[in-house]
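Worked Example 4.2. Consider the chain below.
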Amino acid sequence: MAKVDLLLGLQWGDEGKGKVVDALTPHYDIVARFQGGPNAGHTIEFDGKKFVLHTIPSGIFNDNCVNVIGNGVIIDAKIFKDEIDTLAVSGIDIKDRLFISNKSHLIIPTHRALDAANEKALQKNKIGSTLKGIGPTYTDKTARRGLRIGDIAADDFMARYERLKNTHLAQIKNLDFDMSTLTLDNMSFEQYEQEWFKAIEFLKQFQFIESEYFINKSIAEGKRVLAEGAQGTLLDVDFGSYPFVTSSSAIAAGACSGLGVAPSKIGKVYGIFKAYCTRVGTGPFPTELFDEVGEKLRKNGHEFGATTGRARRTGWLDLPALKYAVMLNGVTDLMMMKADVMDDFEEIKAAVAYNYKNEEIDFLPFDACTQTMTPVLKAFKGWNQKIEKDIPVELNDYIEFIEDYVGVPITLVSYGPDRSECIERAKN
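Applying the procedure from the previous section yields the following structure tokens:
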């Protein structure tokens, strides 16, 4: 029986998942997103062109691949339309190859307003939200008052929209937030809301499906399915650095609930990680670098958020955190991204443990957000050369140490942004 293979990030997001999905797509009939929303930014480059996807699955550039937005994904109609329009300018028409779950929840404009109000109220304790309305939308989902894609066709959709909007406006008022100061994508709230409703009408031309039935029927027919995650394991709402996390389940288990797939139908789990670490927003980052080395990683890696444009925090690879992510997800294949960023480093380092409460540990404790964790670093000789089709000896030594530490083989090494700049490695 066919299985659903998974691809997800093992760090704090921005690992390069989009590129790998795009590269793997020729081997699959269906690519399905299972969680997150427009807070995702999956960058894909090929033939001198660069695309950033926020909601649409990364398999969309393969004409023979069907793409599914699963029930675990949340959708902002305006951002979705902008994404479609951008693809259309490049001559990419995806209407016949994109299916959307009826059960996907809608981000309405006041979700974004409430997100901004919540962040302002938190002041110095703010989460570092992308301000895309992600948290408030998932909150409404669990509170059982959210609007779903399938609701767009309901006769009372506008009445239900107004009810939810008024609930949000009351919450915003309680937070003492001035709506007149709010801009959404350089528009006033009223202007954005108008554009959002236009986008809702645009959305109606797409195919809304019962995606859980579609996916499971496809599996039964022997079709090859790749499930694509967003954000990263260390941002998972349960297992990430809470409260500095996203609002959905970004681990392998999230694919089961986000697509309606039984655990027994999960096959390979591809875990994506950078050869170093980055993080956007607030939260613990034990290996973070505040010196010229950190700045060099940022510059070499063009480490600015695809969704927010914010400069990413940078640091050495954190191996205890990576091993933790491998464990949570049942990773079968590791894929290292951005090895080329350290091409000109004489020496690189990686954390192998932490100093925590006067002892050395190799796991992530519950109170990592409130306690000081100093990394225990191991130094490696840098390869100090440009990677071109072959893996330098020093990089291979680094790779083999990682494999031994986490217990999973690294089967692909990326050395550039283009889909062609990858080296496959055989499993030992």
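The first strand starts at residue 4 and ends at 9. The CA atoms of residues 152 and 158 lie 9 Å apart. Compare this with Example 4.1 before moving on.
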